[in-house]
Amino acid sequence: MTGRREIKSWLMDMDGVLVHEENAIPGADRWIARLRELGLPFLVLTNNSTWTPRDLAARLRAGGLEVPESAIWTSALATASFLEAQRPVGSAFVIGESGLTTALHDAGFTMTERSPDYVVLGETRTYSFERISRAIRLILGGARFIATNPDPTGPTPEGPLPATGSVAALISRATGVEPYFVGKPNPLMMRSALNAIDAHSETAAMIGDRMDTDVISGLEAGMHTVLVLTGSTSREQAERFPYRPSQIADSIADLVAELD
Predict the structure, then answer these.
(1) What is the chain's alpha carbon radius of gyration, rounded to the nearest angstrom?
(2) Could you tell me if 13 and 208 are in contact, meaning their C-beta atoms sit under 8 angstroms apart?
(3) What's the rounded Cα separation, in Å, for the pair 108 and 135?
(4) Is 196 exposed, middle or buried (0-12, 13-18, 19+ CB in 10 A)?
(5) Could you tell me the CA-to-CA distances from 131 to 96, 136, 159 in Å, in that order?
(6) Catalytic residue among 15, 117, 151, 214
(7) Do domains 9-47+184-259 and 86-181 have the same CATH topology?
(8) Which of 158, 79, 155, 64 has its CA nearest to residue 121?
(9) In the chain, N or C terminus with fewer CB closer than 10 Å?
(10) Is the pTM higher than 0.70?
């Protein structure tokens, strides 16, 4: 570990780090409580754009974790922040849920189906063939193509479901236009999160359970990275990647003592 005095801010993935299928991972409650006791800035990150921070805070609370909504950063918020900087008071045709539309509205964007500046694709459990077809026509007509995240599938108790990355591939195949993905592994997601809590990469750490999203985006953003083994990656699988995390921990519970 780089040392507690050098790590002043913490970013962490949600699924596989703090929760597993909405149940808190043992020790996650102590980790969050200790960060709050010490007054250390932190954000919980998720590539899922479905929910607003308020929704996610309520879901985490139901699982036993007290995380304020101000400490939650989604790919929808990162997308809205990026688009606001690119084209203030712009317009968008959106495929997604309230997490994405709320973030874009709050950033000053107008939702429209007529000559939008952007087609913005996010997560939803009810992808509509009609809206996907509309998105294809708008992109062919000149709208810029943005997607919140590249994840091809999302987990459910019944098994994986197609997610943003898969639907983006369908639209790209039909239009010949590749989207700009804002969420992990784009380090833009990390930088926007750091900006949201006025933190610096040199004194910040990213905790995640995936090498190909959490760790690589943290590394490319210049952060200390921690891989926890409570999610989708084993120690053996981590060794197969051409890059390494700064640290590997069995779970987030092992990091609590390092804050003291």
Answers:
(1) 18
(2) yes
(3) 21
(4) middle
(5) 10, 9, 25
(6) 15
(7) yes
(8) 79
(9) C
(10) yes
The model's pLDDT over 61-83, given as tens digits with 9 standing for 90+, comes to 999 999 999 999 999 999 999 99
Is there a catalytic annotation at residue 55?
no
C-beta of residue 84 within 8 angstroms of C-beta of residue 92: no
Catalytic position from the list 13, 117, 151, 214: 13
Residue with tokens 């190909």: 212
Task: Give start and end residues of each alpha helix (H) in the chain.
Answer: 28-38, 53-62, 75-86, 98-106, 129-140, 164-175, 187-196, 216-220, 235-238
- Each residue's pLDDT, cut to its tens digit, for the chain (260 residues) gives 444 448 999 999 999 999 987 899 999 999 999 999 999 999 999 999 999 999 999 999 999 999 999 999 999 999 999 999 999 999 999 999 999 999 999 999 999 999 999 999 999 988 999 999 999 999 999 999 999 999 998 877 788 888 999 999 999 999 999 999 999 999 999 999 999 999 999 999 999 999 999 999 999 999 999 999 999 899 999 999 999 999 999 999 999 988 87
The domain spans of the chain are: 9-47+184-259, 86-181
Q: Does CATH place domain 9-47+184-259 in 3.40.50.1000?
A: yes
Whether 13 is a known active-site residue: answer yes
